[in-house]
Amino acid sequence: MGKLIYSMITSLDGFVSDADGNFGWGAPDQEVHEFVNEQFRSVGTYLYGRRMYETMVYWETAHKEPGQPPFVVEYARVWQVADKIVYSTTLNEVASERTRIERTFDPDAARKLKAESDRDLTVDGPHLAAQAIKAGLVDEYQVFVGPAIVGGGNPFFPADVRVDLELLDERRFANGVVFLRYGVRAGLV
Questions:
Q1: Bridge partners of 100?
Q2: What sequence ranges are listed for the domain Bacterial bifunctional deaminase-reductase C-terminal (predicted)?
Q3: What pLDDT sits at residue 156?
Q4: Mean pLDDT, to the nearest integer, of 144-156?
Q5: Would residue 60 count as lying in a domain?
Q6: Domain contains 111
Q7: Burial (Cβ within 10 Å: 0-12, 13-18, ≥19) of residue 4
Q8: Does 84 fall in a domain?
Q9: How many structural domains is the chain composed of?
Q10: Which of 101, 59, 116, 105 is nearest to 82 (CA)?
Q11: CATH number at residue 116
Q12: Which helix (H) or strand (E) holds 54?
């Protein structure tokens, strides 16, 4: 059975993008990127909302851009071999291999997908993740806290949920990013 992981870069005040939708303040440097590459090597399926998919589909062809550093090419390869499910009522076609569209997020179908998977899954994008969190599906939270306060925007966590967690791992990076990995305390969702 795979774990469902929610992982994103956030500002110190808990936003994945600012009020204008910008997230460049959270772009990983080489050290963080290489760590992310290792973290996501175990992922077999990405669950995306439309907007997150439209951001991440860049990795389908990133390796073809001239002059890409090896760590960028490596992440592109890690991303390309995983399956992707995009939850969208408006997207008509996908621009990546190993990708399918689902019109609605069904917690029971996601639970079954987890149970049948021999690799980990991620839920990506705060709106889709909120649905998975509320359904009690997220097993692990991997938060990359960036050294920025953006004052508002798209929050990492939904406002109307409580989940008790236990710290599993932490790491500091030279650029000021802090990685925090939490597991859900059994029976306390």
A1: 85
A2: 3-179
A3: 97
A4: 96
A5: yes
A6: yes
A7: buried
A8: yes
A9: 1
A10: 59
A11: 3.40.430.10
A12: helix 50-56
Domain residue limits at 1: 1-10+31-142
Pair of tokens at residue 93: 């076609």
Q: Residue 186's pLDDT is what?
A: 77
Both tokens assigned to 60: 């389908």
The yes-or-no verdict on residue 188 having pLDDT over 90 is no
The percentage of residues in the chain with a pLDDT greater than 90, rounded to a whole number, is 94
What DSSP character marks residue 25?
G
Tokens of 185: 């305390």
Amino acid at 166: E
User: How many other β-carbons are positioned within 10 Å of the β-carbon of residue 79?
Assistant: 22
Retrieve residue 150's tokens: 């953006």
Instruction: Please give the Cα distance from 36 to 116 (Å, whole number).
Output: 25
20 part of a folded domain: no
**Residue given tokens 């589909």 in the structure block:** 57
pTM: 0.94
State which amino acid sits at residue 143: V
